Amino acid sequence: MKRIVEPELMSAEDQAQAYAEADFEAAHSSYPKLFAEKFPGRSGKALALDLGCGPCDVTIRFAKANPGYVFHAVDGSAAMLKFGRAAVRRAKLARRVKLIEGFIPGGPMPRAAYDVILASSFLHHLHDPQVLWRTVRQYAKRGTIVFVPDLRRPASRSMARSMVKTYSAAAPPVLRRDFHNSLLAAFTPTEVRQQLRQAGLSELCVEAVSDRHLLVFGKVE
Predict the structure, then answer these.
(1) Domain boundaries, the chain
(2) CA angle 60, 114, 7 (to 5 degrees)
(3) pLDDT in tens, 101-149
């Protein structure tokens, strides 16, 4: 099945609210655990860049799991960041999580390089995936940890519809719609490996980690 792109930005208030209130526990709770598994010898302190942070559910989970980390969390949607700021305040993490409104490439990043770069469920939103990988290359230094979990595209529309029924049957209509569209817009592991080669990031690994997710991880050389 060929990829079908979706809108890059979730800017509607009701859409952002639906995502902020959604239960993504099954997937999002696994990401900090996978991070610890893939990088067991990582430093206890780091400056992390979180690209496409949305309402900050994943950012907050990483901050709680890594108490020595400071996060610069970036998103182009003011609506998403509104809910993200509220969530960060509720979690009492405002000192360690700085939210930044901006698009990539060219967003107002506070630092020239980061120890860790995260991007959760962001890649599939991009019409040009090299936007993400060029940004990773720009803000990485030798040894920067990269951790990018995302959806992976199923083989057919019928499989996508089945996944929506299996995993989002009880979700609001906007989330079911967006999940279906995101599955169709996602990349396959083979496509992502090609993207990494093109970006000069072949040292990063790509793994399928569930029936609907892939993970890009590794250290920049």
Answers:
(1) 13-219
(2) 60
(3) 998 887 789 999 999 999 999 999 999 999 999 999 999 999 999 999 9
Residues 6+ apart with CB under 8 A from 113: 139, 140, 141, 144
Q: Determine the Cα–Cα distance for residues 19 and 54; give it in Å rounded to an integer.
A: 8
Provide the CB-side half-sphere exposure for 55 (13 A, CA): 22
- Tens digits of per-residue pLDDT, 19-28? 555 557 777 8
Return the SS3 of 213.
strand
Report which DSSP code applies to 184.
H
Residue the block writes with tokens 């859409």: 15
User: What does the chain come to in residues?
Assistant: 221
Sequence-ordered alpha helix ranges (H) in the chain: 13-21, 25-28, 30-38, 57-65, 78-90, 130-139, 157-168, 173-185, 189-199
CATH fold label, 13-219? Rossmann fold (3.40.50)
